[in-house]
Amino acid sequence: MGFLMGGLDAEDYDRSYGDGELIRRISVYFRPHLGTVLLVVAMVTLGSLAATATPLLIARGIDSIVSEPTMQQMLGLAALVTLLGILIWIFNFVRQKYAARAVGDVVLALREDAFRAVLRRDRSFFDEHATGRIVSRVTSDTQDFATVVTLSIELFSQIALVLVVSALMFAINWQLALITVAVGPLVVGVALGFRYLARRVMRQSQRATAEVNAVVQETVSGIAVAKNFRREAALYEDFQSTNALAYRIQLQRVAVFGSIFPLLNTLAGLATTGVVYAGGLLVFYQNVTLGEWYLFVQSLGLFFYPITAIASFWSQFQQGLAASERVFALIDAEPVITQAANVAVGRLNGDIRFEGLTFSYGRSERSSAPIVLRDFSLHISAGQALAVVGHTGAGKSSLIKLLLRFYEFQGGQLSVDGHDIRSLDLGVYRRQIGYVPQQPLLFSETVAENIRYGRPEASDDEVLAAARNLGDGSWIDDLPEGLESDVGERGARLSLGQRQLVALARVMLQNPAILLLDEATASIDPFTEAQVQAGLNVALHGRTSIVIAHRLSTVVAADRIIVMRQGQIVEQGSHDELIAQGDHYAELYSTYFRHQALDYTPWGGETAPIDTR
Amino acid sequence: MARATNDVTQIGLMIAPNAGLIIESALILIVPLITITLLQAELLLVPVLFLASFAVAVRAYSAELRPVAEGQREAFGTLNARLNEAVGGIEVVQGLAQERGEEQIFARNARSFRNLFVREGEISARYIPLLLFGIATGLAFGHALLLFSRGILSLGEVITYMTLIETLRTPTYFSLMTFAQVQLGIASADRIISVIEDEPESTPDTHVISQPIAGALVFENVSFGYGSSATTLRNISFSASPGETIAIVGQTGAGKTTLTRLVNRTALAATGRVLIDGVDVRDWNLDSLRAQIATIEQDIFLFSRSIADNIAFGARSNASQAQIEAAAQLAQAHDFIVAMPQGYSTVIGERGVTLSGGQRQRIAIARAFLSDPRILILDDSTSAIDSATEDQIQRAMHRVLEGRTTLLITHRLSQIRSADRVIVLKNGELIAQGTHEELLAQSAAYRRIFVR
């Protein structure tokens, strides 16, 4: 199926499935709904038969009235036609209703499987693939898949109709049938040619839309600046030219799309003319009855509509197959992290030991990704507060991520309380680790619900206590509606500092044995900073903790500071000792921490600022 | 953003193929009706009855479909939003071992979408016009046969009539596909119109005061709220003499940024007055007012153009390269600009280089130098990663404040300390104001920042 994925960027876990394999995978999802599927198929067949029977009956009626019509016969015929009309509606109703049900259920199952697969992936997967792309596999691609199924049913019913109608036409008069059927390939040809053209025009128009989007986006975001400087007119002119371009391309698109149906209609019209003319001649020479001639003219409509529909749905059908291929690739991707055993540990003390550990972010040992930690050893005894400092890329965050078992390491040992981390039941283990990332994610719920996230069964009082224990708890009063405040999408309604406090409260409620913090670099407002620091003091008390410190106050408060450089520990000790040594730590201090000191002035020793003009 | 483009596309979809189809369908209706009238006026009975009931049925159909279709869109949005959060925050989900809970939430959202999908399927399955068409065909046939038997219609006319009835099939089917689309289009048009009509500066600009600003700024019992109920600012009063720097401190959400918006009339006070040089901002000519007030936003916006263009954006007339460079020098931006491959011609943004927060801020400061405002509003929440950048940012700021009345929102302790006066906001109220020393003595909250 790979050839169908043109224009879509393939990702490295994508794989190609043979058509047979793909159909087998899809059919597994339909198996629980076999009854429904059979019902739908039956309805499609019945619907096609009924749709064909209507003109047939009318033709019969026409033939019969030529001969000897009784009133009863005629009314009977009319009643039958009415009945058929009602039957068609009923068949269609049952088909659509149950098809929607089957498709809805299959898509639901597929989505759940895809999401479950996402949750099983380790961090390297999320590093390599953007959130948006993963999300679109779970929701949009499965939606496209639904479209395919619906279309397949539609296609199937159209094909059934074409077959029944053709059979009928050949049975009545093969000469006329040949004329009709001969136009079929022509219609398909035109439709295929149109697809080629349409794809080119669509691509251009998508680019134009992207361009307009970009300009609109910039204009809208820049409108405040433009207003402040009173430059709205200049922006508008810029937008005008882009818009004019997009307008021209959209016109082209409409012209191409607008011409297809008239063209197909013309073809159908020509065929009709042919049939009407040839049929007229045949009627004249008595080879065909009047009713049969009527039937042919009617069948043309029944014949061409499905052919046009099949041709125009084909590309959507292919897109949907490619989409289902992408969904299956996501479900089938191999996990990198494997646990050797599932030991459910009891309450941890928090004694952590890295021994000769080697780690790189590459997926395998053959990978060319640089080695982050090489032969790294570190022992943190239970209850110790460790601050880790160093330049970007020194390997600080890797320590935390390995302890969370987000990544697999390639050599050496990592043990917690003497247990190999690879032998632990990850759910039980991770619940004892409190992790606050640099940009803590909150879900768009209330503050209380976010605090409860790690322990959904916690009572309101416990939630309140966890929040009150951070600092003096006054941060809760600063929230617009206290713990019931809605945090907004991804926590956007709170300041970064407030988000960190919520995340801290969340891990405190979890009562972790080990605390892992990646402090934020962004400066937070001074009020919140004071509160976060107070919160941290509570959180760190009596627990093993590793803090990647960006705040001077945290570094100074730690039991022990390690300085990392290129995956190695180059210095360790307390703040005062390390400053006194005047080596790596002292350099880091003047690079990153000096401006955070309370007595900082931007011009160092100078008392008066430089003259401004 | 979604509104500007998605909705326009929706309207496009509505007008391009669908309005066309509807017009075509209307023609397909009218032509047969005229022909039938010519054939035998009495034969109009069934088609007219059909069309009347068709119109009623289609209305009912779309009224029933619309809420479900909208609900489906909403459910899909909810599903996507939570999924985005869960995937984006996967480290939280996995770190707290909440995979099971996320699965349940996802399943719940996916199921509510599925239910609406099935509901929509049922509604469109129950498309009554199709039933009406089937019945109409039978009735029409009966009617035609009846007239034939009375000798009113010829055989040829019966065939013609039945063929014309058959042409009504197209609009019956097309309306099934297109009405939903048209309805989405109408909904989108509504939303775009609501954006167009949402013009925040709708106060008539008949204000005549247009003069150089000296820079005296007074807030008199000012209150402000977004929407009707919530009050973002309550009863704020303070004043600044020309050239003074006022630092505004407080937590995010305390109303600091909102307060500054009242100065250049991006927002208008609900009660109370904001005075510049003793004149209510409402009485100033908007051009004159804004030309003399510059704002450096917290989230600095630069256009995807050259650095020089971005700096020159602030100038009232065309700025020369020398003026641009001079402004950049003052803003401590010159050095990093010339270090770039194309110097001042370097293009910023999606197609060009990415600048750090500190660099963006210094370009904005250069822009402000060129516009030479009398009042400066500086929303400074940029983080400094290292002390050297911090030094440069602070020097640039110090220069641009010089000689201008400045409202400074800042997190930087050294700037708060060196401001002429500090006002402390909390939940929209001004809880303390004074010099650094006064506040250290007065305010416990303030003291906590500086005494650790």
What report would you give on this structure?
The complex is a heterodimer of chains A (613) and B (452). With 613 residues, chain A is α/β, with parallel strands linked by helices. Among the domains of chain A are: 1-172 and 313-335, ABC transporter transmembrane region fold (Up-down Bundle), CATH 1.20.1560; 174-287. Chain A has 18 helices and ten strands. Chain A has helices at residues 19-30, 34-67, 71-120, 123-128, 131-172, 174-228, 232-284, 290-332, 396-403, 426-430, 447-451, 460-468, 474-478, 496-510, 526-540, 552-557, 575-581, 584-593; strands at 352-360, 371-380, 385-389, 411-416, 419-420, 433-436, 514-518, 544-548, 560-565, 568-573. The longest helix of chain A is centred in the first third of the chain and has 55 residues, at 174-228. With 452 residues, chain B is α/β, with parallel strands linked by helices. Chain B has three domains: 2-197, ABC transporter transmembrane region fold; 212-292 and 373-452, 3-Layer(aba) Sandwich (Rossmann fold), CATH 3.40.50.300; 302-371, Rossmann fold, CATH 3.40.50. In chain B, the strands form two sheets. Chain B has a six-stranded mixed β-sheet with strand order 6-7-8-3-9-10. Chain B has a four-stranded antiparallel β-sheet with strand order 2-1-4-5, with no helix packed on it. At the A-B interface, helix 2, helix 3, helix 5, helix 6 and helix 7 of A face helix 1, helix 2, helix 3, helix 4 and helix 5 of B.
